[in-house]
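Reply to dn_fold:

You asked what the input looked like. This is it:
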Amino acid sequence: MRPAALVCAIASCAALAVNAAAATGFENEVFGFEDWERAVTALSLDPQEVVYPFSATEEMVEWAKLKLAPYMTNSPDVRLLTLQQAFFDPGEFEFEYDQARTLTAEEAFAARTGNCMSFTSLFIALSRAVGIPTFLVTVARQPDVEMDEGLVVVNRHVVAGYRAPTRLYTYDFYVSNSTQVVSRGVVDDLTASAIYHTNIGGMAIRQGDLEGAVHNLKIATILAPGWGPAWVNLGVAYSRMGNGEAAFDALQKALEAEPGNSSALTNLAKLYRGQGRMEEADNAMRAAAEGTRNPFTLISMADAEMHRGNLEEARQYLRRARWWYAREPHVYDAMARLAELEGDSEKAGKYRDKARSLRREAGSTSD
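and this is what came back:
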């Protein structure tokens, strides 16, 4: 049976959209630098060690005021749309999407690039600087999933929000505004910092800097104990360091924060298998597969069923994976393995050809 890969969570997304939904409350949460600094200090963290992603320089404030000067009598949602569109003015700003770069507002303004966390931080910093109280919003959609050298990376999505009296506007930098939104959640500035440090920790894992990853992820879990991805990534970092006990503890806390978190369950299954606890590993994988669209979790379950000889069950998992991710080469690799077990070498060859074709289109030759 093929070993399952560890799953890492990062907040990143791509292209332009504005949506509106029913307004939501967010009393007793931390918004603004002064409240944030007091809250960080109360958590026994050094504010100099924690990143506040929404700071704006004088140059940034002047740029925003200049862009919005002709629209100061318009409603806040109109001014926010104008500000959002200004980020893509040809020849002047042209903010470019880069999934791998999580930047603060100041860094994103200087670099004119970044992922959706970077874009959103910049948007929030500038809009607050001109007196419009925006905030971070997490958005539940079908996740973007990729494989990176044995690490499954689940990209979560964040956007900017503005609460009008009767509705919540969101300002998005996302690949498709037609993708169904399952839910939205307002995020205060403490959790925004936690998401920033979670991203930095996740990228450190991908780069092999495990000590740097643990440092950032511990900060994230102190800032927002209820932010599941921070615990998931911390579990991955500890697992790669060979500290199984700490990895188990972090993943259990991820499940306390987000019961049913498929990334945490998948990673727990991998740890259980490493200890020879196969029944517990199978139970964790089944639980992970229950409500997930992550193709790599579904492929792992299919491989487990193939190993047991349950080929029809394996086929059902792969059908789900193909339905949601028809252009993921690993899905067709798994379908080829199933076809071989069924004695259909011709069909297996066609699936392998499909996987190779998709990798060529994506500019990748890795398996």
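The first helix runs from residue 33 to 42.
Hope that clears it up.
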